[in-house]
Amino acid sequence: MTRTTPAFDTIIVGAGTAGCLLANRLSADPNRRVLLIEAGGKDDYIWIHVPVGYLYCIGNPRTDWCFMTEPEPGLNGRVLRYPRGKTLGGCSSINGMIYMRGQARDYRQWSEITGEDDWDWDQVLPFFKRHEDHHKGGDDAHAAGGEWRVERQRLRWDILDAWAAAAEQAGLPATTDFNRGDNEGVGYFEVNQKNGWRWNAAKAFLRPAMVRPNLTVWTKTQVARLITTPDDDGLMRCTGVEVVRNGERMQALARQEVVLSAGAVGSPQIMQVSGIGPAGLLARHGIEVRHDLPGVGANLQDHLQIRAVYKVKGTRTLNRLASNLVGKATIGLEYALRRTGPMSMAPSQLGAFTRSSAEKNAANIQFHVQPLSLDAFGEPLHSFDAFTASVCNLNPTSRGTISIRSPNFEDAPLIAPNYLSTEEDRKVAADSLRVTRRICGQKALEKFQPEEWKPGPQYETDEQLAKLAGDIASTIFHPVGTTRMGRADDPDAVLDPHFRVRGMRGLRVVDAGAMPTITSGNTNSPTLMMAEKAAAWILAGV
């Protein structure tokens, strides 16, 4: 028998980046009873909080759903690890900590797609600033005093400084701020850290709110399905959720609405197993169609990074520094005493935004440059000194899908990103490797004698470089778009511009899946901005 709990006003599914902020903002109203549900556990694992601990969180079932993609034709049949946070804080507990808003042009495009001025850059900027605590203080683009701490990184490397100088010689402007609307340039990334510790959404937004008596948080609780009932006019209404908690099936009811914030993978999966999604897919799995919505799980976009590796001489990289016990002990001692050095590192330290070719009218590729190299994420460092200049297409035209593999909510979904499936994406991949070579061939790097190890200088044609990109590229963990917003006359739009599920009542989706197109950079902070706007609309009843 399924037990039913007393009703809440709002139920939030997923205590990740968006869910933590929503729980904070909505429970600030003492008359609103809020339930926050998280499938993972508490964020009390030490490696969540030590910045380099992402190495021990990704691929760890304690903190990661440990998803894998289907074999990808564009990656020459390879299967990729597809990390998604499974703990309080969600992906903000295991991600790269890079603070990046995207470009003003991203939000102009959202405004055009949704038909709403609310999504233009000038309208979203105040919502970025609403929770920001920038190390430089406030100005026209930044704010201080909010919950979301933004700091400089606490390290530097000679090889990275030289790479930045080489990028300037190649025509990129130097910058100290990628977050003013036009991020073209080269400089060190700013990060979501506080005094050398990771600053995740759970610490920033959830912990301060958990003292409120009107906020209930359930961890290690997985949503089995959404509860839906037809209104008198035939429209479906979401009235709550059915969950498995401590081995028991339970129902939690919502007087006002349910907000899905389970991420671009989790939210469409929950909708589909609940009978909300493409009718054909649901019928194949014997699921009753509660609401035929073709766009649920479609429009998957992600940033694919092409990991070019260059051997170097005459300088020390992390490959050598971490190659023995003495070096590792030195790294550990530096972090213990000063919270600096390699243990305070974000996965990527130096960044650059530029154009893959002269025909582009804005920066369309992003570099993540690291003083290390390895065959794949989680594998041992190489035995030689090297740096990696990973480059990704910021605005891919390839589109993938998230779809259930069975009606069982516990089964991982089928993840098919469909990378490099368009001619445009393959051309940008080839051109971006040429940009990498142009930068690495500048005078500023000469003293380190950079030698292209991957993909290899013998590959030069578009066809060769695109194929090699498929051999060495990997996801940078930015899935978006699978429950996208759009206009009322857009048959593939899942949400209206206020995150409400089209053709239903009582259900919103507030996470990166709502993005109509991927932002030009790391996606964590745009997701916070979206949650900030959603909270304001929910509290206002719109």
Automatic annotation (TrEMBL):
The keyword Nucleotidyltransferase does not apply. The keyword Thylakoid does not apply. It comes from the Bacteria. Keywords: FAD, Flavoprotein. Residues 263-277 form the Glucose-methanol-choline oxidoreductase N-terminal domain. Its cofactor is FAD. InterPro entries: FAD/NAD-bd_sf, GMC_OxRdtase, GMC_OxRdtase_N, GMC_OxRtase_C. Belongs to the GMC oxidoreductase family. This is Choline dehydrogenase. It comes from Tistrella bauzanensis.
